[in-house]
User: What shape does this take?
Amino acid sequence: MITPGKKRKILIYGFTVLAACLCLLVWFLYSGSANRTNAEVETPPLVRAMIVSPVDAGEQYAYAGEVKSRHESQLAFQVGGKVIARNVKLGSAVKPGQTLMQIDARDIEQSVASQRAQVAQAKSQLQLAEQNLKRYHQLFLEDVISRSQLEQYQAAYDIARATHEQALAMKTQGTHQMDYTRLQSDKAGVVSAITAEVGQVVGPGQIVVTVVQDGEREIEINVPENRINAVRASSKAKITFWALPGVTIEGKIREIAPMADAVSRTYKVRVALAQASAQVRLGMTASVQIHEAGGESTALFIPLSALYQTGTSPQVWVIDQITVHLRTIRTGVFGNDQVQVLSGLNAGDIIVTAGVHKLREGEKVKVMTGANNENF
Assistant: This one.
């Protein structure tokens, strides 16, 4: 049986244990809250930021294009025949006078041999006519024949001489035909296209090899007919390359085709590079951004991710040294993940572009460094 004294001791011991547990729980809660508070104070949130700067307000359109040489030659045989030799391949460097392809010349050789025989025959007839003319001219001087007879021999001589000259011209033409069986490059450059192979029969004027001259580079783009007038009036172009991230080159529109392509109904436009770069190689894929003038000369644009709105007016977080403050702005046109700022911001202001919904007024922040911070 539990005596009153033991019961009192048990109650006192129980209250002591309960008080100790409560103290321990309060200590844990206080310690965790203090640690979180210290962590928040010691580690400000990371944000992305950008410096607001004015840009051209005109519209910009991007066109896909290809890097080409300003000067290129599409070569073809001047005579038809069967290709019997191809001495180059894609990317081969060629020199002036180098033979690129050759066609079978056996038929032309037979034609040239026939023309040589015609020259020999015409020469013999000319010599005979010349001798007859001399002989009958002497007889005319001796009053043996009449003038009309002399004129007949004179005409025979003239005909023989003309026939000889015609045969010589045909022989020269045949010799040229022999030369035309070898396709030669007239300029130094690089082979960019081959459209005929050994064994193929090609016709006169059929393009078989394209040689681009190593030198000035251009971008060829195709512009739809509803934008060609705006492109013609434009003077600014920025060129980027898929294979060269971070490389941007200024360009200038050099040439616009007078007629649209019959199939695509687009106009070929050549954009010249303002500066040469050894990194830009023939055949690379390029993107040409053409600025079309219009509206104000400059304007402020910010990313849509920078907008923060709790009421009816859009706001942005402006960084003042290391703290952020909300500022109300008035927006204009939207486009390309950007929005125009009409008022509320000035050039040179630093705004938060990512993480805007996790910030508080007057909170200290840390700007993330790296390529994700535009113009910062």
Summary: Residues 5 and 11 are 10 Å apart (CA to CA). The domain at 106-180 is CATH 1.10.287.470 (Helix Hairpins). The longest helix spans residues 4-42. The longest strand covers residues 244-256.
